[in-house]
Structure prediction request, 339 residues.
Amino acid sequence: MAVLVTGGAGYIGSHMVWALLDAGEDVVVLDRLSTGFRWAVPADARFYLGDVGDRAILRQIFAENDIDAILHFAGSIVVPQSVAHPLDYYENNTGNTRLLAAAAVEAGIRHFVFSSTAAVYGDQRDDTPVLENAPLNPKNPYGQSKLMSEMMLRDAAAAHDFRFVALRYFNVAGADPLGRAGLSTEGATHLIKIACEAELGKRRGVDIYGTDYPTPDGTGIRDYIHVSDLVDAHLKALSYLRRGGEPLIANCGYGRGYSVLEVLEAVMRAGGRKFEIRYGPRRPGDAASVVANSTLARRLLDWKPRHDDLDLIVETAIAWEKGLAARKAGDLRSLQHRL
Ligand code: UDP
Prediction:
């Protein structure tokens, strides 16, 4: 039996592949390498270069491998891009998830774990940790495209011999503590990535988007979750489904928020160097505070986070960022070698 990981060459997907291999699973990766990297996929996983929206490659994968579960990470995740190109997001996130789920049902693959997002909630009324049954009002096509996918999966599970877990990610950050995987995407916009780049002198300082939020220090608060804990929630979701668990939608966060300033301080502490901080206006569409209530995942999936520590998140992110240029240069060399 094998597990198919779509987007396995990307940030979270590559951590997933390592964790599955560590757990003794047989792993197949499908990735079109639009933002991911071939070198990010461990040699022990079988790699298919292609698009989730390509039925032919899905059929080929299902014919060549005994897949019993799909972990679907492939997708587009840049919010402003989703506002500018909504139909691309609906195609890549919603349309391709539909296609993959239909192919799974057709092939008799019954277990599906889906990467969803806290963006399905939209604005929160206050800063209490958000529960899964909170109102769903995505503020952008990205969140909408993920919410529509959840709905399709729910309906498919009601009609077919097909069960899913959708995990709503909060702010995923950090890198594999063993240094095997990390965030390598070009032009990333996420706070911890940007702050690590500033700490290592790869960019000049960090702009804080908004200092007048109704939070203790006026900057935005987020629930930063270490990528290894997130990946562990997927392993738990996989065993839950294999045990016959019912369809489930669950939050993945720690239930504790940090402000932008607290994050920047943690990065300077870890790197030992001060960088410039510029205080700027709010970024359109940002909420003041987004924190998860993850009681459901802890209870039903028996999920026990082990890296709930902002300093550890930041230290692993910096360690990865330091080695990144060398890794990318290595990939270029191996590519030239193959050509
Ligand atoms: N943020 C910031 N400067 C940056 C990037 C992000 O002040 O250069 C803030 C942003 O306004 C939010 C928090 O950091 O309050 C996390 O933003 P990120 O883009 O990492 O994730 P999001 O919560 O938007 O998904």
